What does this fold into?
Amino acid sequence: MTNAFAGTDGTTGTGRSLRIAHLYPELLNLYGDSGNILVLKKRMAWRGIEPRVLEVHVDDRPSFSNVDIAFIGGGSDREQKIVCDKLLAEQEELRSFVEDGGVLAAVCGGYQLLGHSYLMGDEKVEGLGLVDLYTDRGEPRIIGNIAVESRISPQPIVGYENHGGRTHLGDGVEPMGKVLYGHGNDGESGYEGCLYKNVVGTYVHGPLLPKNPGVADYLIARALERKYGSADLEPLDDAEELAANKVMFDRLMAGEVEE
Amino acid sequence: MRSALAVGAGRLSHWGLHSVLHRSASQLPGRVALGIDPNLMGELAGKLRKGSIVVCGTNGKTTTNNVLASAIEAAGNTVLCNRAGANMAAGVTSALLPGRSADWAVMEADELSTVHILPNLKPKYLVLLNLFRDQLDRAGEIDHVQDTIVHALQSSPETTLLVCGDDPLSMGVARRAAQNGTKVLAFGVDEDLHLPADRVPEARFCQVCGAELDYDWRTYAQLGKFRCPNGDFARPGLDFAATGVKVDRTGVSFDVRGKGIDGTVRLHAGFGGVYMVYNLLAAFAAASLAGVTGEQFQRTLDGYHPENGRLQHFRVGGREVVLNLAKNPTGFNQNISLLLADERPKAAYFVINDDFNDGKDISWIWDVDFERLAAEHMRVICGGHRANDVQVRLKYAGIRADIAGSVGEALGRLGNTDLAEPLYVLTNYSALWPAKAELERMGERHD
Ligand SMILES: [Zn+2]
It folds into this structure.
């Protein structure tokens, strides 16, 4: 976050604003993740909260001191490794961001990076160690639609998962939710994703936020609460989003989507 | 003996299907034959007097392959071709069955099937048009597609790779193949087209060191004159180069210079956008390597009508309807460019399904630049199994769209808007055939 935020404190002027750091969009955008950023931006703007998005690129030295929401998406193994190496250099800064209640959303490969380690082929790669979890591998690759019941969304969270990794949560780590359809973290526990402080990690893409406006608003509300002490969010007309969520959920539960 | 039997069984099932079941015989006879003798494709290749050409790439392979086959035919050859687009090993074998001999086989191949096709067919040329993200859940990641094509080429050392030099992802394949001894010829556009930049996809990185590539110009998506700032990877010198490129609503035209081509050949076609320049350039390069002249190729283009629902024009109740396939972000963005190049007021109907052949994960719609349509204030309607997802995508692009279950219903929504306003129907794979059938029922085709 070298220059773009320099000299802007976001509290000048009348309204509220939030700063979103999109980490390595060029490397970790395998599953339409730009859609997640777009949804955060629009849902803030529609409520008069000024969104300030900064893309963090490979050659940038990120600083998280003035970030409200950080987002990490998914990429191929090769790209994920590049990102992990970059972020390991910022591990302490990221850790204090997370411990201080900074909002961090991590999807797919980004989710795996949160843990102590993950596997790239047969090689064990050190992760960021931000959340007590680790990822190993299993066969077959888990690919398909998924629906998850979660306390962070009034509707079931609906999306798509595509991962060879099996993610195992430490004892004290809360899953994002319970799998209603699909496989989730490890295909066995019946749980999906993780929640830790204001971190949300998940395999659900599709992308995650457009059809799950509750999750988008959860992230925005946590960031507002941390920055302004109040999480008041004006309701929006989500007719289209909720229809898309419901249509897909109903198709899945009715067995209308072939695996 | 074994393979004579296999050929017999394959032919019989070809005959049986055509005569009795009246259904597409493009895939099944090859499966029957392959089930008896897996080496059959290699043996059938022996009946080709001059050889074979295989065309692969994420977008445009059917059009490129069919134009190429027609051009080689127009030059007086007999050609076997999987025109219907059955492009896995079984489909290719099936297309090799008819007749005792032929001059050429011209075959479209699914990228991941090249590894089964090349070692048996041992084609003279493999045309690699482009690599884009497509059908992720089935094809896996781009890295895997690249590895597969490299391995396929390794299994057929006499095959020359004819590759799009402007595409860093295809050149990533070419670079590794060349290290294994494969002969490489490159085609590309050799001038800045000064087009408004579309969204840069994820692939603008050096295939050697990962640095962000510099571009003198981009033509579309990640294609252009690229170079790694660290000097280890760049757009190669072009063996076949297009210049003087013109692209508008009426079609494309350009000059080609290249290996074995006498002077400059100007080609023109009444269809397509920038992507079509690449398809036709690739087809002409391969055709000229097979001995086709510029004049013969142009005559083929003059008589060519895009098939399989690709960019077809219909007239329904006095309104023009343009139907085209758009199955991934790059294809969709190119279609949006085409639509924006049409200066008339217009409407659009986007149909997205999530059947197996489409890819069940449609998150790619968020990588399509629908934002470019927002300023047009045009009527947009969504359809298909994932109509609601498209509607949400459009909402976040600043476009309010409604939903219609069929082309007929979409046309109905236009009500009494001026009949001079065309309706563009863009669909992904499995939604194409129903839309086409509906249009053929309701109106008539015109080209
Ligand atoms: Zn490089």
